Amino acid sequence: MGFRIEAGLADEILRELKKSYQIYAPKRFPGQGRFAETDLIRYDEVSALSEIVFDEKSDYPAKEVITPIQQAIFYFTEEEYRASRGKSKPILLFARPCDINAQRVQAKIYAGNGGYEDLYYTRMRERVKFVLMECPGGDDTCFCASMGTNRTDDYGMAVRPDGAGGLLAEVRDEELLPYFSQAPAADFTPAFVTENETAVTPPEIPDKETLLKLKAHPVWQEFNGRCISCGACTLACSTCTCFTTRDVVYGDNPEVGERRRVSASCQVEGFSDMAGGHSFRPTAGDRMRYKILHKFHDYKARFGDMHMCVGCGRCTSRCPAYISVTATVAKVNAAVAEIRGALGQ
Q1: For labeling, which of 21, 64, 143, 208 is most exposed (least CB within 10 Å)?
Q2: Is 247 among the domain residues?
Q3: What is the tens place of the pLDDT at every residue in 78-119?
Q4: Is there a domain that residue 18 lies in?
Q5: Are residues 13 and 147 in the same domain?
Q6: What is the pTM of this model?
């Protein structure tokens, strides 16, 4: 059903919803941006419609609500341990189509990878209902239309600012409908972006021989002098799942504390180091090769349904060295064309 909701009523509905749900949405944090006197937009709990940022892409993805950067996985003493408890309330998560589609990728990795199911992911994901935020068109780093992630049906409710401080809403979840009993009906169906300012064509790598030659291609050496291996791109990525674990002890007693899961990055030096000093990817170029091919070839080759990248463009936006993922993929396409030509394909 569709509704038109004035600003005052929208806040009343949010207050009622908060009695049963935790509500997360993109929220502005003034002065916390990367540069002086700039703002940061990231996900946090909200209590009023005015706190939700509709007209700008968040700097960090919605996945941080479901898989936080730091997360306690269990608590321990000298004699026993106890798994951490999950959220007590279900979650309403305001998100754009690219971030919702990113959860299809996360679910494959956390909950459908060889039959293994990650408890900490699934117990959070099962509590989430998505509120689709109609996208105003993104910015010059977005390319969701190229990746097929500009549309989704996975939402319980969809919203669009009405231009007068209120909302147009489509409510599909039966459990949410009672909260809108005072709102007048209105025709509303969310619209989806059909074209971005930027377009990307994922590389076509037809066989193992082409793939091996691409891995050895000099296109990656450029990043040895450009990428600073900070990991900002992967932290801002909607689909990256790498993590490490860290023990935090309480006070002076090393036998009492907690083990945390902490987001990690394949782009940081040392991530692939092994015992004995061996490293699979010792240079920045090696690490960039791994990331790009994982996003635009390896994941789809393994799971078959979609590429890992959803085209949100946050990696480009957050890179302090101004490395563009779209420009990088274009260079990879040129390298693939060169290799295939040499192979007579």
Answers
A1: 208
A2: no
A3: 999 999 998 889 999 999 999 999 999 999 999 877 788 999
A4: yes
A5: yes
A6: 0.94
